[in-house]
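Dear Dr. H.,

I hope your travels went smoothly. While you were away I took the liberty of generating a structure for the chain from your last submission, since the lab meeting agenda had it listed for discussion. I wanted you to have the full record in hand beforehand rather than looking at slides cold. The sequence, exactly as received, is reproduced here:
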Amino acid sequence: MSASLVANVVLSGLLTGLVYGLMALGLSVIFGVVRVVNFAHGEMMTVAMYAAVLLFGAFKLDPMLAALPVAALFFVIGYALQAGLINPFITRPEHSQFILLVALATIITNVMLMVFGPDAHSVQTDYQLDSWAIGQIIVDKARVYAALSALAATAGLFAFFRFSRTGTAIRACADNHLGALIVGLDVKHLYALTFGLGAACVAVAGCMMTLLVEVSPSVGPSYTLLGFVIVIVGGLGSMPGALLGGVLIGVSEAMAGLFIDPSAKSMISFALLIVVLLFRPQGLLGRRT
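The corresponding predicted structure, in token form, is as follows:
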């Protein structure tokens, strides 16, 4: 097995992992601030993938451009979902929140089955089969564009939380809920903004994933599970950890497909999860609480 083949596989896994990281970033942000585990995360991503497919079919809109209106729509949906449905459950026992979001995931999956059927759908852009040759390294254009878009969205989210007043207020809510209430912050509004931002992240990731894979209603639960694996490996609630976890899972899946069997990808991901939980239960970049 040549070194160039291994390098190609690692690069492909790295680029895919950046998109994974953006998907998991939305899950991590929501948990880090709202302390709610979104069991409908993968289903929301699947809806975003279908939205990109529909926009491409109707208007020939490239998924990278479709990510903008889809993300805006998902931000509004996420805000309304948190404000109208999830906020009343914030103070209830955790199992009530779990049941609520599992029920939401089930509803979304079945609605997609009714609307789109069980068959897989995809987009076919002009550059999906194109690549760049750098020596013996073959760089897939679609993966590069998807990864760069994911990095741009991630950088924008980091900048928002770091430099904006609203982002600072959201971080204050995450650090000290009671203190945020005492100083007069509208915590419920900030929670809704956070859920909206998490939904926008998963929308962009979903649009990028349509460049790489087909979409069907059945993929939603697998993406939810993948998101959990990534954020636990990186550190639940850690934004840099979500990105690192996505890259590690993307590369490990690619290497498993090369050295073992493509069907062993999930096995390797869960093996990595077990190792991290054994030696660093809070995740690679997580903090002990």
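Two observations you may find useful: The beta strands are 131-134, 137-140. Residues 3-279 form a domain with the ABC transporter involved in vitamin B12 uptake, BtuC fold (CATH 1.10.3470).

With kind regards,
E. W.
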